[in-house]
Amino acid sequence: MSQYVDSSLKLFALNSNIKLAEEIAQVIGVQLGKCSVSRFSDGEIQINIEESIRGGDVFVIQSTSDPVNEHLMELLIMIDALKRASAKTINIVMPYYGYARQDRKARSREPITAKLVANLLETAGASRVITLDLHAPQIQGFFDIPIDHLMGVPILADYFKNKNLQDIVIVSPDHGGVTRTRRLADRLKAPIAIIDKRRPKPNVAEVMNIVGQVEGKTAILIDDIIDTAGTITLAANALVENGAAEVYACCTHPVLSGPAIERIQNSKIKELVITNSIALPEEKKIDKIVELSVAPLIAEAIIRVYEKQSISALFD
């Protein structure tokens, strides 16, 4: 696809996931743009774009993952720099949208931070956002600019299809994930089950009971984000206690913070399948974890946006 080499398509990577950005650039057939991100001694971020982007269609790849605020601020400053350097369009490729879990007022005096982030991106000068598996699909409505919401389920489904597992059931770890669970179940032509859980406080999950038939079956748990892994490991243990033969788990966004890796290592999960929407440091890459790449999907979305083609086929 080297036809893009001398074109106005410009691809830049900030610090959150350079390896994924390099993969995307390779699939498209372009070089990553030259820019440097440095820090003043007090921690302020300085960005220098080291090539002309005047009149170009610029795509910036940055997941707002840990450290979330650093990566978000890098992105906002980059957008401002691109706008002042006369980029024609500024397209934000955000495989993981940080703050997405703060998407509504669940209690009094609570912020809706996912909306604030949308406002910040727009105010800075973003023209479009391309993202993957938003925690809540309604976040698309927080933007007044175009947003392309890609799905990770087809990538996960292809992996499990190739494993040829027998007698499977797709399991949602909570009621909120049923739609996602059904998407995977439809692709694998399998029934679903739901874990009914009660969460006494944030990041603490308490499993109650299982709705659906899991006895003797190969269970595949699916979630969009695995953070501290409390929910998913308790769910896996509950499935085994209820007679599941073996348990796999999968997610699009491996936040995997705090005790997550230790919990997964010590759990009943046979294999955890993730994508590289968030860069996983080497110390977290345990044998149980299988990483799939979202680079071909995102590269295809970028090409279609650049060529003004429909990308609705990629939503499936």
At CATH level 3, the topology of the largest domain is Rossmann fold
List the uncertain runs. none
- How do the strands of the widest beta sheet line up side by side? 10-9-8-11-12-13-14
- Indicate the structural class: alpha/beta
**Fraction of residues in β-strands:** 25-35%
Order of helices and strands: EHEEEHEHEEHEHEEEHEHEEH
> Assembly type of the shown chains?
single chain
The rounded Rg comes to 20 Å
Name the CATH class of the largest domain.
Alpha Beta
Please tally the β strands and state the result.
Answer: 14
The backbone outline, from C-alpha atoms, is: globular
- Total number of domains: 2
Distance between the termini: 24 Å
Number of helices: 8
Average pLDDT across residues?
93
Architecture of the largest domain, CATH level 2?
3-Layer(aba) Sandwich
Helix residue percentage: 25-40%
Largest sheet: 7 strands, mixed
Summarize this structure briefly.
The protein is α/β, with parallel strands linked by helices and 316 residues long. Helices cover 29% and strands 28% of the residues.
What does this entry look like structurally?
- The chain is of the alpha/beta class and 316 residues long.
- It has two domains: 9-150, Rossmann fold (3-Layer(aba) Sandwich), CATH 3.40.50; 153-292, Rossmann fold, CATH 3.40.50.2020.
- It is built from eight helices and 14 strands.
- The protein has helices at residues 18-28, 68-84, 113-124, 153-163, 178-188, 230-241, 260-265, 295-306, and strands at residues 9-13, 35-39, 45-49, 57-61, 89-94, 128-132, 147-150, 168-172, 192-201, 204-211, 218-226, 246-254, 269-275, 289-292.
- The strands form three sheets. It has a seven-stranded mixed sheet.
- Strand 8 (168-172), helix 5 (178-188) and strand 9 (192-201) form a beta-alpha-beta unit.
- The radius of gyration is 20 Å and the shape is globular.
- It starts with 8 loop residues before the first strand and ends in a 10-residue tail after the last helix.
- The model has no long low-confidence stretch (mean pLDDT 93).
